[in-house]
Design goal:
292 residues, mainly beta, 2 helices, 23 strands, 49% strand, elongated, disordered N terminus
Length: 292
């Protein structure tokens, strides 16, 4: 006979609250399997630290990182040491939106997140840390152009966050949390956040899948630069010596004349959305629809 013990916990994740249901399933030998049930459309990483293991052992150690994929996932297994003795455990958890990866991102190219044929300039964003520009870690890229334009998805992904209710423009170059934004989660575990968008201009909602080049919002005017703009930030979780950390990184962007890195400065560029790049991440169903 199997016994089921269910714990429902609310875990604080990156940018949002998410409900994850954790189920501890015990078999007749008193071994335990921790399962997760994730009702969202993107995965979450759960850090589990066991503070107590009574007549149980974890082959993966006291601290583990497990992925709660959409739907049901096995997080870890705890093995009973003595079959006829009682078991017990307690643990602390922390939730991270998305997964962490150690794979190289050098081969991935992004579309310019502007409508095709748009002229623009690009430069790295500066943080508000007070550090000298040359000493600051990479934050993201600012794209600037003369007239309002549609903002497009630079890669295929799932909308993982939307904020569109800020009516007044924010002050400062990278005050991201007080700006309108759309965040996209990509299958390789990375995120794209497009910020500084026109209020209430979103054409997508959380959980919706988008393809490269799809219009998702409209640009807004930057008082500081006296131009329309959009800020583009690519981020992911990476495993470090002290656990997983949130990291921003530059990416390759495909323009009409050349590929550039988003940490470069260039004054004369034009957006270009080649079909082969748009179709690169599509599945068969999407390719059939796109080709019509």
């Amino acid at each position: 006979m199997r016994l089921l013990v269910t714990f429902i916990i609310f875990l604080f994740g990156n940018y949002c609250f998410a409900q994850v249901q954790i189920v501890a399933e015990q078999d007749q030998d008193r071994n335990l399997t921790l399962l997760s049930f994730n009702s969202e459309k993107i995965p979450y990483t759960i850090r589990i630290e066991f503070s107590k293991l009574e007549n149980l052992e974890s082959i993966n150690g006291r601290v583990i990182y497990a992925v709660a994929n959409p739907g049901k996932s096995t997080l870890t297994k705890l093995h009973s040491i003595y079959v006829n003795e009682k078991t017990g455990f307690s643990y602390n958890t922390k939730l991270y939106k998305g997964i962490y990866e150690t794979t190289s991102l050098e081969s991935i190219t992004y579309l310019v997140p502007l409508e095709e044929g748009k002229s623009f300039s690009i430069r790295p964003l500066l943080s508000q840390s007070g550090m000298k520009p040359e000493s600051q870690p990479f934050t993201g890229a600012g794209l600037y152009f003369e007239k309002p334009t549609s903002i497009c998805a630079p890669r295929k992904g799932i909308i993982s966050g939307v904020k569109m209710d800020v009516l007044e423009p924010s002050e400062g170059p990278t005050n991201f949390d007080s700006e309108n934004y759309i965040e996209i989660y990509h299958q390789d575990g990375t995120f794209t956040r497009l910020t500084g968008l026109k209020p209430n201009s979103s054409r997508v909602g959380v959980g919706e899948e988008v393809i490269p080049g799809q219009v998702i919002a409209e640009s807004s005017f930057s008082e500081q630069d006296q131009m329309d703009h959009v800020k583009m930030i690519q981020s992911r979780w990476e495993m470090g010596d002290l656990g997983i950390v949130w990291t921003n990184f530059p990416v390759k962007i495909y323009t009409e004349d050349k590929e550039i890195l988003s940490d470069q400065t260039d004054q004369s560029l034009q957006s270009f959305h080649p079909k082969e790049l748009i179709m690169l991440e599509m599945d068969k169903k999407e390719l059939k629809k796109f080709s019509k």
